[in-house]
C-alpha cells in the first residue's frame, strides 16, 4: 500500500485495487481509519481525536490531489506524494 503522506506520526496511504467510494487509509499508533475523500468523514475505523482532526483538515486542503491519486491508483499508475499538514 503506497504511502502518499506522513505527518504528526500519521501515515496516509491508498491501495491500488480498493473499492468505491474514493477513500484513503490513515494510520496512527496501531489504529486505522478509512476516510472518504469527497465527503471528509470516517467510513470505518478510528483514530485518536487530535489525529482525526489533523487528518480531516488535511483532507479538506488536499481533496483535489487526493482525487487525482485515487484516479492514478485505479489506473494502476504511480501515486504522487502529497504535502503534509505541517
Give a verbal description of the structure.
The structure is a single chain. By secondary structure, this protein is of the alpha+beta class. The chain has one domain. It has helices spanning 49-61, 63-74; strands spanning 3-7, 10-13, 23-28, 31-36, 42-45. The chain has a five-stranded antiparallel β-sheet, with helices on one face. β3 and β4 form a beta hairpin. The relative contact order is 0.24.
Tell me the number of strands: 5
Could you give the distance between the termini? 23 Å
- The radius of gyration is 11 Å
The figure for the number of domains is: 1
Strand line-up across the major sheet: 1-2-3-4-5
Report strand %.
25-35%
User: Helix content range of the residues, please?
Assistant: 25-40%
The topology string of helices and strands comes to EEEEEHH
Please state the overall shape, judged from the principal axes of the Cα atoms: globular
> Strand pairing plus helix content: what structural class?
alpha+beta
Most strands sheet: 5 strands, antiparallel
